[in-house]
C-alpha cells in the first residue's frame, strides 16, 4: 500500500481529539460573545473580550516558548484540554445563580487565551512526529479541513441552541467536548522521536537562540509576516462579524451561525481542492489566495443581502487553505524537531502581537467609521501587501515548485 495513502492510527486519535476540542472552542466563543453583546450592546466590549484573550498569551509565549520542545507533547495537549474544560464551569455556575457579570467572561477569555498559547504550537509540532514527512501535506489538509468542518457545524448548532435554550445548555456542551477531546488524546502512543531532547539551555539562552534561528530563516520570517497581515484582518472580523450580521444585515443569532459556518465550509472545500491540485508556484498560489481573501473584505463592505454575504464568505473560505496549509507544511518540513514547537510559538507570538491591533481597530473604527468602512479599509491593506509579495522581485525566494521537495538544506538566510 502507498505509504502516503495510509496515515497511522496515532494521527487519527489526534484528529478526533482536536476536532472535539475545536467544537468546544467554537461553542464557547459564540456563547460568550452572544452573552456579552446582550449584556453590554457594545462593539468596544466585544473588542475588549478578544484583547483579553490575546494579550496575556503574549507573555506566556515568551515565558514557555523555550521549554515547549522539552515537555511531553501528548501530556501538554491533554492538560490544555482539561483546563479549558474546567474554566467553563465558572460561567455555568454564575449564570445559574444569576450572578454573571462581563468581567467573569473576561476571566474565562484570558485563561482560554493563555492555555491556547501553549496548546497551539504544541499541536502543530505534534503532527510531524506522528506521520512521515511525505504525508505532512495530506495530514495538515485533513486536520485543517476537519477542524474547519467543526467550525462550520459549531456556529450552526450553537446558534440554534442559544436561540432556543440560551447559554445554560451551550456551556455544558463546551465542557463535554473539551473533556472528550482530552480522553481521545490519552490513546496516543507517544513516538520515540517525541521524547524531549536533553536541552540544558537557560531560559534566556533559549529565547536568544530561538529568535536568532527564526529571524535568520528568510522563508519562515516572511511567511510569518504575510500570515500576520491576514491575522490582523481576522482580529477585525472577530469584533465586527456579530454587529455586521445583527445591525448591518438585520439578522439574528441563527443567521449569524449560518454566516460564521460558511467560511469553514469553504475552507473544507478549499482543502479538498488543494489536495487534488498539481504542484505549482507557491508564491503566486499562497499570496494570490491572500489577495482573494482581502477582496472578500471589500465585497462584504458592499453587500446588502445575507445571501450575498454568505457567498462571499464561502469564497473567502475556499481561498484560505492555499496559504495556511502550504505555509504550515513548509514550517514543519524546514524546522528540526528539537526546535519545532518553539519556532511555532514564535510565529504565534508574531500573529498575536498583530491580532490585538486588529481587535482594537475593529472595535474603535467600527464605532466611529462604521462596520462597512472598516471592513473595506482592512481588505485593501491585505490586498496591497499580498500584491507586493507577488510583484516585487525581492520575494522570488518564495517561488518554490512545491512543498514536497523542500528540505532544511534549501533554507535561505535572511539578508
Automatic annotation (TrEMBL):
<feature type="transmembrane region" description="Helical">
    <location>
        <begin position="169"/>
        <end position="188"/>
    </location>
</feature>
<dbReference type="GO" id="GO:0022857">
    <property type="term" value="F:transmembrane transporter activity"/>
</dbReference>
<keyword id="KW-0472">Membrane</keyword>
<feature type="transmembrane region" description="Helical">
    <location>
        <begin position="49"/>
        <end position="68"/>
    </location>
</feature>
<feature type="transmembrane region" description="Helical">
    <location>
        <begin position="77"/>
        <end position="97"/>
    </location>
</feature>
<dbReference type="GO" id="GO:0005886">
    <property type="term" value="C:plasma membrane"/>
</dbReference>
<keyword id="KW-0813">Transport</keyword>
<feature type="transmembrane region" description="Helical">
    <location>
        <begin position="219"/>
        <end position="242"/>
    </location>
</feature>
<feature type="transmembrane region" description="Helical">
    <location>
        <begin position="377"/>
        <end position="395"/>
    </location>
</feature>
<keyword id="KW-1003">Cell membrane</keyword>
<dbReference type="InterPro" id="IPR036259">
    <property type="entry name" value="MFS_trans_sf"/>
</dbReference>
<protein>
    <submittedName>
        <fullName>Predicted arabinose efflux permease, MFS family</fullName>
    </submittedName>
</protein>
<feature type="transmembrane region" description="Helical">
    <location>
        <begin position="12"/>
        <end position="37"/>
    </location>
</feature>
<keyword id="KW-1133">Transmembrane helix</keyword>
<keyword id="KW-0812">Transmembrane</keyword>
<feature type="transmembrane region" description="Helical">
    <location>
        <begin position="295"/>
        <end position="324"/>
    </location>
</feature>
<feature type="domain" description="Major facilitator superfamily (MFS) profile">
    <location>
        <begin position="219"/>
        <end position="415"/>
    </location>
</feature>
<dbReference type="InterPro" id="IPR010290">
    <property type="entry name" value="TM_effector"/>
</dbReference>
<feature type="transmembrane region" description="Helical">
    <location>
        <begin position="344"/>
        <end position="365"/>
    </location>
</feature>
<feature type="transmembrane region" description="Helical">
    <location>
        <begin position="254"/>
        <end position="274"/>
    </location>
</feature>
<dbReference type="Pfam" id="PF05977">
    <property type="entry name" value="MFS_3"/>
</dbReference>
<dbReference type="InterPro" id="IPR020846">
    <property type="entry name" value="MFS_dom"/>
</dbReference>
Amino acid at each position: 500500500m502507498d505509504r502516503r495513502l495510509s496515515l497511522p492510527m496515532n494521527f487519527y486519535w489526534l484528529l478526533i481529539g482536536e476536532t472535539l476540542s475545536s467544537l468546544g472552542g467554537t461553542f464557547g466563543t459564540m456563547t460568550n460573545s452572544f452573552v456579552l453583546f446582550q449584556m453590554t450592546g457594545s462593539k468596544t466590549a466585544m473588542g475588549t473580550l478578544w484583547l483579553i484573550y490575546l494579550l496575556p498569551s503574549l507573555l506566556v509565549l515568551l515565558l514557555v516558548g523555550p521549554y515547549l520542545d522539552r515537555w511531553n507533547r501528548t501530556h501538554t495537549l491533554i492538560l490544555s484540554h482539561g483546563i479549558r474544560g474546567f474554566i467553563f464551569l465558572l460561567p455555568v455556575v454564575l449564570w445559574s445563580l444569576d450572578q454573571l457579570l462581563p468581567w467573569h467572561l473576561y476571566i474565562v477569555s484570558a485563561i482560554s487565551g493563555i492555555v491556547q498559547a501553549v496548546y497551539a504550537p504544541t499541536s502543530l509540532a505534534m503532527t510531524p512526529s506522528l506521520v512521515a514527512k511525505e504525508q505532512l501535506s495530506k495530514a495538515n489538509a485533513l486536520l485543517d479541513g476537519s477542524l474547519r468542518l467543526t467550525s462550520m457545524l459549531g456556529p450552526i448548532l450553537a446558534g440554534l441552541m442559544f436561540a432556543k435554550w440560551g447559554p445554560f445548555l451551550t456551556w455544558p456542551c463546551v465542557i463535554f467536548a473539551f473533556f472528550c477531546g482530552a480522553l481521545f488524546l490519552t490513546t496516543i502512543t507517544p513516538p520515540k522521536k517525541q521524547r524531549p531532547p536533553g536541552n540544558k539551555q537557560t531560559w534566556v539562552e533559549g529565547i536568544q537562540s530561538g529568535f536568532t534561528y527564526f529571524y535568520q530563516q528568510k522563508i519562515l520570517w516572511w511567511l510569518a509576516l504575510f500570515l500576520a497581515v491576514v491575522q490582523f484582518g481576522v482580529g477585525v472580523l472577530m469584533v465586527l462579524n456579530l454587529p455586521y450580521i445583527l445591525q448591518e444585515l438585520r439578522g439574528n443569532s441563527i443567521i449569524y451561525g449560518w454566516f460564521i459556518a460558511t467560511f469553514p465550509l469553504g475552507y473544507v472545500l478549499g482543502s479538498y481542492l488543494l489536495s487534488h491540485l498539481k504542484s505549482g508556484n507557491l508564491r503566486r498560489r499562497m499570496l494570490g489566495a491572500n489577495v482573494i481573501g482581502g477582496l472578500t473584505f471589500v465585497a462584504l463592505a458592499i453587500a446588502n443581502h445575507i445571501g450575498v454575504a454568505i457567498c462571499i464568505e464561502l469564497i473567502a473560505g475556499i481561498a484560505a487553505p492555499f496559504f495556511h496549509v502550504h505555509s504550515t507544511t513548509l514550517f514543519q518540513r524546514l524546522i528540526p524537531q528539537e526546535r519545532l514547537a518553539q519556532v511555532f510559538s514564535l510565529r504565534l507570538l508574531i500573529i498575536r502581537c498583530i491580532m490585538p491591533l486588529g481587535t482594537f481597530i475593529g472595535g474603535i473604527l467600527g464605532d466611529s467609521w462604521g462596520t462597512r468602512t472598516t471592513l473595506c479599509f482592512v481588505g485593501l491593506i491585505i490586498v496591497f501587501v499580498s500584491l507586493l509579495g507577488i510583484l516585487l522581485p525581492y520575494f522570488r525566494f518564495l517561488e518554490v515548485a512545491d512543498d514536497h521537495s523542500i528540505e532544511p538544506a534549501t533554507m535561505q538566510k535572511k539578508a
